[in-house]
Amino acid sequence: MANEQDKIRRVMEDMAQGKEIGNKLVYDRNTKKIRSTPKYQDPDSKIEITSSDAELFG
Amino acid sequence: MDIEKTIMRSEMPQFRFYQNSDNYYFKGRQRTSTLNRSYELKLTLTQWYPDEMPELYVTSPINLRSHYSWKTINQNGIAYSTHTLSNGPNGCVQICHFKSELWDASQTCVGVFIKGILWLEAYENHLLTGSDIADFF
Hints:
The complex is a heterodimer. Chain A is of the alpha+beta class. Chain A is 22% helix and 26% strand. Chain A is built from one helix and three strands; from the N terminus they run αβββ. By secondary structure, chain B is α+β, with helices and mostly antiparallel strands.
C-alpha cells in the first residue's frame, strides 16, 4: 500500500502530465501541509490545489 | 495589503507579515509532507504590489543540496530544470513561481505560497529520486 509520500509524488507526476485521475492534492489548514485526498471529497477546511497552482515558470 | 494580511492569517497563519521602512514581506516556516523537513519561505513585496510580481525565496536553509552530492540547487541560478531564478540575499534560492509578464493583480500571496509549498515537495522528491524539479510541474 502506498504511503502518503508516494501518493503525493504520484499526484504531482499525474498533474505534470495533465492527468486528473485518482487522488488530488489539497493544502490542509489544520496540519498546514500538502496532502492527497480522494478526488470527490468535500474540500471544506482545505485549499484545493488545481493544475494552475502546479504551473511554475522559469 | 490589508486584505492580503487577512487572507494569510486565516489560510496560512504560519506566514506573518513584516514591514521594515519601505520593505514589506511575508515570512514563515513550512514543514513538508514528503520528508517532514522545515524550510523558511520569504515573499518580498514591492510598493507596486499587486501590480508588480513579488519574489519568493527559500531563506533557510540557505544552501539546498542537490540529489547529486557535489552540487547545490543554489549553484543553478536561473534554470528551468529547477524552476529557479537568480539567487536572492545571501545567495538563497529564488523560486520561479510565475512569469512576470503574465503576472496580474488578481493573483494573491496565498496562491504564491501554495506554489512555493509545492516547489518544496518537488525539491524533496528530487532529493529522493534525482528527477528534475521541473518534472513535477
